[in-house]
Design goal:
Blueprint: E1 23-25, H1 31-37, E2 44-49, H2 54-69, E3 75-80, H3 85-90, E4 98-103, E5 106-112, H4 117-133, H5 146-158, H6 162-175, H7 181-196, H8 200-208, H9 221-230, H10 239-248, H11 253-265, H12 269-282, H13 290-302, H14 307-321
Helix pairs in contact: 2-4, 5-6, 5-7, 6-7, 7-8, 9-13, 10-11, 11-12, 12-13, 12-14
């Protein structure tokens, strides 16, 4: 196992990965096991809803997304009150949607009606904190594997749940074998979260922890390219001036390259690709192929699946092999 890395905190242990077990439907027959017994190990929130309830259609998916982002720190059970009227009566559900939180087999908190996403986040964090005070650690008996933690981190990152994502990736990096593919992928995940949160320097510091013989690992390609682009200062910080200069002298490769850097800095990636392709069409070998190298870095930063990458790559191929 690896030595501990300083990667922004530990993920919750003993939690299931972001799979189907985190969110399930329950009936009066399964409520005892899915809610009361399950809440002895991990907090469970119950969403009481019905197909005719308009606000339920908004709150339910929002609550489910927030639960999945917490990577096993809390579970969610959905109860259709039309199909489980006796259960709704026993729990005195008077309006929909109603959300109840169970910890240690007992209801401890809840709310009625649709609420903003910010309130959902606060509610879940409050329940998780209450469970922690009672000594609950998570929903499974075994610690999550590095692979499961990485999957949970990716899911949380996709939902912009940065604290949960960095915890999952950080714990994965700490428990993975030293120098393993999983550890490198987890470190890359931490850097992705830090960059997405706007902390460029933290992302660079995280990648600095990668052993020198692992710097070229495939898991690091995209984040390294993104940081490389962000590290390229725009020529003069004036996009308009760069555009004017290149229009005045379209044959000037240096001016065109400076314009592409300004466009990248301004977030105009598609336009920057076109500018670089224009430079390549004029002179592939200018400045030792600088325009082509910059374009390839853009491809890596955006990822092969990006539609603009696919378009630009096709055009680049036609230029290089025509």
């Amino acid at each position: 196992m690896s030595s501990t890395l300083d990667l922004g905190g530990n993920a919750p242990t003993g939690a299931a990965p972001g799979g189907d077990d985190l969110v399930k439907d329950a009936t009066i027959e399964t409520f005892q096991a899915d809610v009361l017994e399950a809440s002895m190990h991990v907090p469970v929130v119950v969403d009481f809803w019905a197909t005719w309830c308009g606000p339920c259609k908004t709150l339910g998916p929002m609550l489910e997304k927030a639960v999945q982002a917490r990577a096993g720190q809390v579970k969610m059970v959905k109860v259709d009150t039309d199909k489980n009227q006796m259960l709704a009566q026993q729990l005195r559900i008077q309006s929909l949607p109603t959300v109840m939180a169970f910890v240690g087999g007992q209801p401890v908190d809840g709310f009625m009606g649709a609420v903003p996403e910010s309130e959902v986040q606060v509610f879940l964090d409050r329940i998780i904190a209450a469970a922690a005070q009672m000594g609950l650690k998570g929903g499974a008996s075994d610690v999550m594997s590095a692979k499961d933690l990485i999957a949970a981190g990716k899911e949380a990152l996709a939902q912009s749940a940065f604290p949960q994502a960095i915890q999952a990736f950080g714990e994965a990096a700490n428990i993975a074998d030293e120098g393993s593919d999983e550890q490198i992928e987890a470190i890359a995940g931490v850097a992705h979260v830090q960059l997405a949160a706007g902390d460029v320097e933290a992302a660079r510091a995280t990648l600095d922890q990668v052993p020198s013989d692992k710097k070229d690992h495939a898991a690091l390609t995209q984040i390294s390219a993104q940081l490389q682009l962000m590290g390229d200062p725009a020529a003069g910080g004036d996009l308009g001036a760069a555009e004017a200069a290149f229009r005045a002298d379209p044959s000037n490769q240096e001016q065109g390259y400076a314009l592409a850097e300004e466009q990248i800095a301004a977030g105009q990636v598609e336009t920057a690709m076109d500018t670089l392709l224009t430079l390549i069409a004029k002179d592939q070998e200018w400045n030792e192929g600088a325009a082509r190298q910059k374009l390839l870095t853009l491809f890596e930063a955006l990822g092969a699946a990006h539609p603009e990458v696919k378009r630009a790559r096709r055009r680049l191929s036609s230029l290089l092999f025509s």
